[in-house]
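Box 3.1 — From sequence to structure: Putative indole-3-acetic acid-amido synthetase GH3.1
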Amino acid sequence: MISLSSSIMAVDSTLSSAVGASVSEKDAKALQFIEEMTKNVDSVQERILGEILSRNADTEYLKRFQLNGATDRDTFKSKVPVVTYEDLQPEIQRIANGDKSPILSSHPISEFLTSSGTSAGERKLMPTIHEELNRRQLLYSLLMPVMNLYMPGLDKGKGLYFLFIKAETKTPGGLLARPVLTSYYKSDHFKSRPYDPFNVYTSPNETILCPDSIQSMYAQMLCGLIMREEVLRVGAVFASGLLKAIRFLQVNWKQFAHDIETGTLNPKVTDPSVRECMSKILKPNPELAAFITKECSEENWECIITRIWPNTKYLDVIVTGAMAQYIPTLEYYSGGLPMACTMYASSECYFGLNLKPMCKPSEVSYTIMPNMAYFEFLPHDDSSAQDSSRDALPRLVDLADLKVGKEYELIVTTYAGLCRYRVGDILRVTGFHNAAPQFRFIRRKNVLLSIDSDKTDESELQQAIENASVLLKEFNTSVVEYTSYADTKQIPGHYVIYWELFVKDAVNAPTDEVLSQCCFEMEESLNAVYRQCRVADSIGPLEIRVVKNGTFEELMDYAISRGASINQYKVPRCVSFTPIMELLDSRVVSKHFSPALPHWTPERRC
Ligand code: AMP
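Predicted structure (token representation):
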């Protein structure tokens, strides 16, 4: 049963007394629930694992490991292997093809959630069951009670959130495959949510649920402009989404001003339900139109968020992990407003929340809620555990037994049937709330480059470079060395690849056109999420910067001068350290950009 325990009526809780805030009865219940869960981490985890194992005891997957009805941790840990997505792919493929037998879960798989993590270039398909929506909803319901402790008065206005649904497909067996947030926004949990003064959005449901992302963005921004005085917080899921909205305003402000002046909606917005709901909101307002024209026509966009939405108290946007690169840009546009990173979640499972949402981005720690799934942790700095083969069953640590200061890889066992599944996130324990460890998100394993939801690893980059360098063959040219950089100084950001070339025949060197074609070839070789982000204009054209011969040797000299060992030196395949960037950029001889969008359709390639 997933509910905030109704028997808990105590109005006080450690969390609220810690900040001295007075709380409503509803919030008190949520805070008390967090207290209960975080005080009893180990017993909750034991119960959750018992529940998962007993309900899934007759699944094909668990029967394979002969638990013989056991639901205790020791048996589970000694018999069930730790797995990756690739290990589960045969089972997932069968479910996708329509096999309805209890393969991973005793409850029917209701749909697949398409993760932004990829396997063989395609999004991973995460099986889910209907009741997981309740678990996600429960975690969402804890966010505002915590926020209200630190930021009173949020019921006096609205949130301008840029929320979108994405393309969905069907698997051969007829199951929907779509991103977790698309699944959530389209669910009754979201669409028919009861009125809550702390969660009133400027965007009507129709604008969020519009499948055309440009029309959706247009309508959501227009609503935000019309209701500018009421907006108390501005957000998107990730920082990149909010910056995309700002860029959209930069490109389209004249059209917005026109719509607001005349009270008519841009004819390019054709979605009938969006047009209908906007007709109730949009009225001629020349004064507002003049204001928007004045603010947006200025060359300087510094503080544009607080200029247009003057009552904004904070930005609600994730800037931890790969998104940290956007903090300076967001600070520029918002005049240094606080940035709240409220939760940590994935397609596999929603994990937890930030109990101090107004802390600095560099200090954000997430508290995993032990009722969401069964969690185990692979010590990350322990090379013996890391390298041990799956047959040797690495030694995993339970949520209640983690050590402050140590790094771990997160492993989940979910109600939907993922057992000891490696999520791929590396977390560091920063402290405890009651008995619950709190985690800094360190990084995603093996991710080299990321601009939006794309994640490109070293082998994908290597493959893309190999594919592109085929075009150089007829010019007797090869790539001697390379490295990469996620350039987010402009919106949208883009991948920069530094190439040192060996040109055998200078008279027949590759032309600019050929090198631009290499950029395109690389983009074609990158994974589906990258290509989708390119098509959606969340990532700009890939750039190759050719550097002078000998540059990578200089790079090595620099690393050695800073203490790197000559024996162990490896060319970094991704760089961000300013002196290294400066060295590389000072040696650039030519720059080339991808001339076209790579191929992408919602259908999977395989
Ligand atoms: P997806 O399955 O596509 O939703 O991606 C989930 C992944 O996004 C997680 O495993 C993390 O790597 C990353 N992520 C989610 N929430 C956060 C967060 N609050 N901070 C940093 N990274 C996050």
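Summary of the box: The first helix runs from residue 14 to 19.
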